[in-house]
Amino acid sequence: MKKMLSLLLLFSLGVGITNATDIQKVKPVKNVILLIPDGTSLQTVSLARWCQWYRNPDKPHLNIDPYICGTVRSFCSNGPVGDSAPTTSCYMTGYPSIAGFVSTHPYSAGNDDIYPVDPDKAFQPLATVLEASRILKNKATGLVFVCEFPHATPADCASHSYQRGNYKNIAPQMVHNKVDVVLGGGTSYLNEEGENFLKNNGYGVFKDDLKGFRSYEGNKMWALFGKGEMEYDLDRNPEEQPSLAEMTAKAIEKLSKNENGFFLMVEGSLVDHAGHGNDPVGLFSDFLAFDKACGVALDFAKKNGETAIIIVPDHGTGGPSITGGSSYSKTRLFKTLSGFKRTAAGLAKIVNSRPAEELPEIFKEYGGIRLTDKEIDAFYNCKGYDKSPIPKDQRKDKKEDNVLYNNSLTGLISDIITARSTVRFTTSGHTAEELFLAAYHPKENLQLGMIDNIEVNHLLCNLLGVGGELDNLTASLFAKHYDVFKGMDYEIIPAEENGNPTLIVNGKKKIEIQPFTNIIKVDGKEEQLNSVIVYVDRTNTFYLPQNLTELTR
């Protein structure tokens, strides 16, 4: 199947392309850092670059600019528009997947399949480059992000599910998958069992503890900030939450102590959220925060001499564009937008914390704009505005003149910001567009041209020295229970309420297996595996290591 995909890919790219780097011949390196700005279109990059230049005339370029070397065609297994789960999954596994699938083989969509899909492998967990780095190369591994940790992109690196929102099953996999450093959001998703497991296995665990995060001297750590996602960089209190750049530096500091090298994924998570919310301030400011993290990674790579950097979004979001025509000056285009001191989400929190009579003052202080009477009226009728003098049951469901109305407070503020800027959005959803690709290699000049998302996986695998090995690793780690224990006495005990089913194997030794961790019981005694066990209810199948039969002897 992989060979067929590769042949089809070569045909789609054009075999005769010259001057492009042959991905299969890229030299392996000791360390690989993959940086993903979630939901970032080329126009988002342009907007961020222009706003930075407007505010800082001595900074016309981004950190990523010298290393842009191509574009990526990103897609799901059955269509050109993908969410973060299947698109990052493809980077991690080498297989296109379908909406909502986290490092899991898609089901066939018939004629809509972009590349051939083996229906017999539907819902099969797929080994990731992070798992391959740790298991096959003994490298340290790390994840840095600003969303909650079970969110799609970090989840794609260290878990497997056909439902990206099933945090109940995803979170414990990430805890038990032996990732050395995990830094980001989501304190509420690390439960007591998970926290105890980490501490008992030598991890430093920090929840909303910036001082502890900064002072910890151990090499294995989890540090989470915020119950869910972290704050946008522009809204962030630097006394409470670290920046993405600081977390990236901390992860590199810890991971680089491994003599075998490391694999690190860094995600600029909230660029995507700003795109969904059509908030141009959140869009450009969080991309600039991501670019600072890229600068940290690139500086390390150039000094270290053994590190490759790959920077690529997973998909586009929002379809932003800078409008106005040639008659618009840079001041007209960027002054108002660049002057905002908070994102729409950040402004919403302030607006809901202060009396209604202070509304105009808030926008003058944090946005430098004067609200109109119609805009103030829209706030008073917004269902999400807690301080409105109008009772909720008396607020209008729509504006008669259809000028401005939004039940979401953040959405209303985004509308006001957008109306005062020259940025426009085509959608609040994802977009099918080519993505920028930037790369740094210590020993060769990577010129990659236009490649598919499958090729991004091939590039990562070859840089890590595991090219062509993911399929075998998948077969080794995620075999079907009825194949592993064929001819043996086993049964699946149905799940109790809110629990998981249990696989019982009766051989010379009794094995009890519950999914979504790396812990099993052998004759009642707990043992840890080197990988997580996954259960898929759609197929009533446990996916587990092939060598488990050895434990029954």
Automatic annotation (TrEMBL):
Binding site for Zn(2+): D38, D272, H276, D314, H315, H430
Signal sequence annotation: 1-20
Cofactor note (record): Binds 1 Mg(2+) ion. Binds 2 Zn(2+) ions.
Binding site for Mg(2+): D38, H151, T153, E267
Record carries keyword Lipoprotein: no
Cofactor(s) in the UniProt record: Mg(2+); Zn(2+)
Keyword annotations from UniProtKB, A to Z: Magnesium, Metal-binding, Phosphoprotein, Signal, Zinc
Example GO molecular function: metal ion binding
InterPro entries the UniProt entry points to: Alkaline_phosphatase, Alkaline_phosphatase_core_sf
Active site: S84
Entry keyword Ubl conjugation: no
Family: Belongs to the alkaline phosphatase family.
Record-given protein name: Alkaline phosphatase
Lineage: Bacteria, Pseudomonadati, Bacteroidota, Bacteroidia, Bacteroidales
